[in-house]
């Protein structure tokens, strides 16, 4: 039974990060069933995270290794939250999912057996129109080298101002921030100048370090939307799930 469950989970995780045609065939509740029905239950019953890498019940999130790529992880709430379109992410008491995901970047570094600069690592969330799963999940992995080079021009910008750019053929706006908590939580930063909350459903967000040390250099919030001309509902192509920038160990 355990082998069968593991096989099912492997198939599901492979589907969550593959092309749109495969995504459409995936069980949209699979990630939620894995986290709530297996990882959380295992943590509650035995104090171990089960198939997850980490489960923090107090902070309301789990970290799960994605089967796609050697270094990709997912942050998934242990509460039922559909995704970027959910009003729950903007509630006053919403967990700091982005800062928790950022702290989990250490798992990527352990996977590649190398210390990476914060500007080489990224967090990303897709629009519901570019995802298969009906449970919020933030991708955690390396960035493409050419994307790092493009974003380098914004490393010294004054915080709090959007700048438009074309990256990988799509229109994005980029903002440097000094924090990804509180008012600078990327969900809040993106949402606060949109006409209404429903337009969050068309958004995609990527977060990376503005320089080698985000603590001193700040972070970059990279945002696009399906509502834009040449916009995108997924910034995931800007990430590198093969982490080619890591040196060979």
UniProtKB/TrEMBL annotation:
Alphabetically ordered keywords of this record: Cell membrane, Hydrolase, Lipid biosynthesis, Lipid metabolism, Membrane, Phospholipid biosynthesis, Phospholipid metabolism, Transmembrane, Transmembrane helix
Locations listed in the record: Cell membrane
InterPro entries xrefs: CDP-diacylglyc_Pase (IPR003763), HIT-like_sf (IPR036265)
A Pfam family this chain is assigned to: CDH
Gene Ontology BP annotations: CDP-diacylglycerol catabolic process; phospholipid biosynthetic process
Membrane association type: Single-pass membrane protein
Any GO CC annotation of this UniProt entry: plasma membrane
Chief location category: membrane
Top-level taxon: Bacteria
E.C. number: 3.6.1.26
Pathway: Lipid metabolism; Phospholipid metabolism; CDP-diacylglycerol degradation; phosphatidate from CDP-diacylglycerol: step 1/1
GO MF, one annotated term: CDP-diacylglycerol diphosphatase activity
Reaction(s) the record says it catalyses: a CDP-1,2-diacyl-sn-glycerol + H2O = a 1,2-diacyl-sn-glycero-3-phosphate + CMP + 2 H(+)
Family listed: Belongs to the Cdh family.
Protein's name according to its UniProt entry: CDP-diacylglycerol pyrophosphatase
Record lineage: Bacteria, Pseudomonadati, Pseudomonadota, Betaproteobacteria, Burkholderiales
């Amino acid at each position: 039974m355990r082998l069968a469950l593991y096989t099912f989970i492997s198939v599901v995780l492979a589907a969550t990060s593959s092309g749109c045609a495969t995504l459409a065939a995936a069980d949209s509740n699979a990630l939620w069933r894995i986290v709530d029905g297996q990882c959380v239950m295992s943590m509650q019953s035995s104090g171990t995270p089960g198939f997850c890498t980490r489960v923090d019940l107090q902070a309301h999130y789990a970290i799960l290794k994605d089967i796609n790529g050697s270094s990709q992880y997912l942050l998934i709430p242990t509460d039922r939250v559909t995704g970027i379109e959910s009003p729950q992410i903007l509630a006053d008491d919403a967990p700091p999912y982005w800062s928790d995901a950022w702290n989990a970047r250490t798992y990527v570094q352990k996977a590649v057996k190398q210390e990476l600069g914060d500007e080489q690592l990224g967090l990303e969330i897709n629009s519901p129109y570019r995802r298969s799963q009906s449970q919020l999940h933030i991708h955690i992995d390396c960035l493409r080298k050419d994307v790092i080079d493009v974003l380098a021009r914004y490393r010294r910008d004054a915080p709090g101002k959007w700048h438009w750019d074309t990256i990988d053929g799509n229109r994005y706006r980029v903002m440097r921030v000094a924090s990804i908590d509180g008012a600078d939580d990327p969900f809040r930063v993106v949402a606060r100048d949109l006409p209404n909350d429903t337009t969050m459903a068309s958004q995609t967000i990527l977060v990376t370090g503005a320089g080698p040390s985000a603590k001193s250099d700040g972070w970059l919030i990279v945002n696009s939307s399906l509502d834009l001309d040449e916009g995108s509902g997924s910034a995931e192509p800007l990430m590198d799930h093969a982490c080619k920038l890591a040196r060979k160990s």
